[in-house]
Write a structure and sequence with these properties.
By secondary structure, the protein is mainly beta. The chain contains four helices and 21 strands.
């Protein structure tokens, strides 16, 4: 006699089915879910493989490779993967260089094992340029003044792309006055910056050495003295039939302040050049001042006031035949005393 089947327990059957599906999803081989897909990863280069005297003109920032990956592997390598180029065989111009992958296990999923990236390399240019010292900040001792700053070398070597090297006119060492320790003998290590004619920093330039030793020299805080103001006229002239009858300066004297060394270099003070071309009537010019003597104006030199007023009296020329002794002389270009 055959046994009779009892009714099927639906709940048990459903649970068994769900468990079977879950078990199948857990034990299914990962390779069955993999597929070929592109993956973009960041690209750098091994710095110690770039030969000396070469620089990179153009380089890609990422590389796209094709790899057979599962979704989870793709997400993992998308976050952790990176490519590194080896530039040992560097040549000028554009060339493809071998690329390694990290982490190393990424390599076994890549379809094309010969991975390369194109870099454009150029040979660098080298030249020697002058070093000049400037200062920033404020010296803490009000009774002393940093009179001069001397670097231990006058020239340094710079190297970099030809277009950038051509812009460099000098190398600047900026001494921070607030870093000075008193006024005794001392040398300060100061970093260098390559700058152009407008005093802007030029990037991508290597400087050797990268720092210089600067020796500050001190003197008493700025001194003052009174100086008579001369007048400098330009080469221009008043029109025919007119003459400069006289001129005057207000004020006739100014106060010059600066270090004792800077003041000692000044021979006298004169105005900036005044152009009287085409002048047919009396006119007052407000002009700046400059020292006569030094080739370059010392940075610490100050004038008070910083400008003066020069009044030039112009009138019609006198008729010929008048007594020459009573006729004013028309100023020529150059420096003249005030209030002639």
């Amino acid at each position: 006699m055959k046994p009779t089947r009892g009714p099927v327990d639906v709940t048990i059957a459903f649970i068994s089915l769900v468990l079977s599906i879950v078990l199948f999803m857990v034990i299914i081989p990962t390779w069955m879910s993999r597929r070929s897909r592109p993956i973009k990863i960041p690209l750098t280069y091994e710095r110690d493989t770039l030969p000396a005297h070469f620089y990179i003109d153009k380089q890609p920032t990422s590389i796209t490779i094709k790899a057979t990956l599962s979704d989870s592997e793709y997400e993992n390598f998308l976050q952790t993967g990176k490519a590194v180029a080896n530039l040992t065989s560097a040549e000028p111009g554009e060339k493809s260089y071998p690329v390694s992958l990290e982490p190393p296990q990424l390599r076994k999923y890549v379809e094309n094992q010969n991975i390369q990236a194109a870099f454009t390399l150029e040979a660098s240019v080298r030249k020697d340029v002058r070093v000049f010292v400037t200062s920033s900040g404020k010296f803490s001792d009000p009774t002393e003044f940093v009179d001069n700053m001397v670097a231990d070398t006058k020239k340094v070597s710079i190297e970099g792309p030809a277009v950038d090297i051509a812009r460099v006119t000098g190398v600047r060492a900026t001494l921070r006055l607030d870093m000075l320790q008193g006024t005794g003998p001392q040398q300060i290590s100061v970093p260098l910056e390559a700058v152009d004619k407008d005093d802007h920093v030029v990037e991508n330039v290597d400087i050797r050495p990268s720092q210089v030793m600067v020796t500050p020299q001190f003197s008493l805080a700025p001194q003052q003295k009174q100086e008579f103001v001369d007048v400098t006229f330009g080469p221009g002239k008043v029109p025919d039939g007119y003459e400069v009858k006289s001129y005057s300066v207000e004020p006739t004297h100014v106060t010059v302040s600066g270090s004792s060394q800077s003041l000692a270099r000044i021979g006298k003070v004169t105005t900036t050049m005044i152009d009287i071309t085409g002048l047919t009537q009396t006119q007052t010019f407000t002009v700046g001042l400059r020292p006569v003597g030094p080739k370059s104006i010392p940075a610490d030199l100050k004038f008070s006031p910083s400008t003066v007023q020069v009044t030039v009296v112009v009138g019609q020329q006198r008729l010929k035949g008048l007594n020459p002794a009573t006729t004013p002389i028309v100023p020529k270009s150059g420096t003249l005393g005030a209030g002639r």
